[in-house]
Every structure is written in structure tokens, then in C-alpha cells.
């Protein structure tokens, strides 16, 4: 028996859904067991790790050691990330904890010999994140002011400006309340501005 197809009947092909190639999308694929996606997640996380450690003035050799430890933690704990959209704050938190543990192993804070020309602090702090403040001082003065701050003040400013984290996300990383984090960030920003001889402002947004 021959089945006749009506001339108006057309065969429709369903295209495969587009794959999500964003970082959260890669996280989901890695959690599902895609090894290539896991490699991409680590590759995209590495600049975040390196930038944070560099701004914290971590010794170059120690920086590589911490970065490797963070990468290993990503591999072993990525499955525990419940919100792939929050992967960057999660990586920053792991990096911050790794740096703190490394510092605790040292008798004193070790600093790296970062050239002021290659230090990314300038571009990170020349933003309008804090009430539209414009820093017009020389980049060297900005870097010197940042690196002259106590470790805790420098850390919270880097968390806020470098990774564009919200106060709530920073509070989670630091293990404190949003209100306490806001006050600490305000004080750190005030101290940073005072070292640049900048007029005081209302505080972080």
C-alpha cells in the first residue's frame, strides 16, 4: 500500500536548542558532567583569581600556589554551587580564603614587586561606583594610597570595586552582616580618600 503525501504537507525539522555558553551556563554543563565545560569554567575563573591576588599584593610564587589551590577547589566543589549565576562571588570567596590562610602561614605579610605600570588598581578604582566620585590624581598616587591601606581596608575596597560585588555578596564572603559590611566599606573608602586628599562623600552605593 502506497501512502500519498498531500502537496501542502511539509516535513518540519526541529533545530536543537542553542547551548548556553555564558559562564553560568558552563557551570551548569560542568555540574552535569561535561569535562570541557569544567575546563572553560576554570579558564574564565583564573583572571578573577589572579586579579584579586595581584591587588592584594601577594608574592608571585605564593600567588601561583594559591591559584592552583583555588582551581582544585573549583573542581572538587563546583557541584555544591546552587546558583550558577553567583559563580564569580563564589570564586572570589574561595580566593579570599586561600589568601588569608596563606598569610596566616607567613610570619608577616609578603608583598609582590608589582610594577606600578602593570598594576590594575588604577583602572579598577577610577570608577563612579561610589556616588559618582571621580579620582583625578595620578595613577601612581592611587596605587600608593590603595597599597598603603591596612589589609582589611584594602581587601574590602578590592572586593567592591574589582569584582563589582554587592554589599550583600561581600558580607557573605566576609561572614558578617550587610550593615556591618556597609559600615566597614564606608570607613575604608573614607580612609582611602583621605590618603588621596579627596573631599569626603556620602559612602558606597
Give your account of this protein's structure.
Residues 2-12, 108-137 and 199-203 have low confidence and may be disordered. The protein has 205 residues and is mainly alpha-helical. The chain starts with 22 loop residues before the first helix and ends in a 10-residue tail after the last helix. The protein has nine helices and no strands. The protein has helices spanning 23-31, 35-55, 60-77, 87-104, 121-125, 139-148, 151-161, 167-174, 178-195. It is globular.
Give a brief outline of the structure.
It is built from 9 helices and no strands.
Salient structural properties:
globular; disordered C terminus; mainly alpha; 205 residues; 0% strand; disordered N terminus
* Low-confidence spans: 2-12, 108-137, 199-203
Q: SSE order, as H and E?
A: HHHHHHHHH
CA-based gyration radius: 23 Å
Shape: globular
Please state roughly what percent of the residues sit in beta strands, choosing from under 5%, 5-15%, 15-25%, 25-35%, 35-45% or over 45%: under 5%
Distance between the termini: 75 Å
Topology, please?
Layout: H1 23-31, H2 35-55, H3 60-77, H4 87-104, H5 121-125, H6 139-148, H7 151-161, H8 167-174, H9 178-195
Helix pairs in contact: 1-2, 2-3, 2-4, 3-4, 4-8, 7-9, 8-9
Amino acid at each position: 500500500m502506497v501512502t500519498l503525501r498531500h502537496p501542502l504537507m511539509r516535513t518540519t525539522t526541529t533545530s536543537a536548542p542553542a547551548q548556553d555558553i555564558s559562564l553560568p551556563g558552563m557551570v551548569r554543563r560542568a555540574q552535569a558532567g561535561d569535562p570541557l565545560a569544567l575546563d572553560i569554567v576554570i579558564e574564565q575563573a583564573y583572571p578573577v583569581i589572579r586579579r584579586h591576588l595581584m591587588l592584594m599584593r601577594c608574592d608571585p610564587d605564593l600567588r601561583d600556589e594559591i591559584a592552583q589551590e583555588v582551581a582544585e577547589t573549583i573542581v572538587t566543589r563546583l557541584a555544591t554551587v546552587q546558583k550558577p549565576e553567583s559563580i564569580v562571588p563564589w570564586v572570589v570567596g574561595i580566593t579570599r580564603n586561600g589568601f588569608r590562610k596563606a598569610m596566616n602561614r607567613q610570619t608577616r605579610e609578603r608583598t609582590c614587586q608589582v610594577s606600578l605600570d602593570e598594576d590594575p588598581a588604577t583602572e579598577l578604582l577610577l570608577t563612579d561606583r561610589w556616588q559618582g566620585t571621580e579620582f583625578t590624581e595620578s595613577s601612581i598616587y592611587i596605587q600608593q594610597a590603595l597599597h598603603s591601606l591596612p589589609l582589611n581596608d584594602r581587601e574590602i575596597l578590592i572586593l567592591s570595586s574589582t569584582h563589582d560585588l554587592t554589599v550583600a555578596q561581600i558580607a557573605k564572603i566576609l561572614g558578617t552582616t550587610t550593615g556591618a559590611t556597609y559600615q566597614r566599606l564606608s570607613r575604608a573608602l573614607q580612609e582611602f580618600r583621605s590618603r588621596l586628599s579627596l573631599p569626603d562623600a556620602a559612602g558606597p552605593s
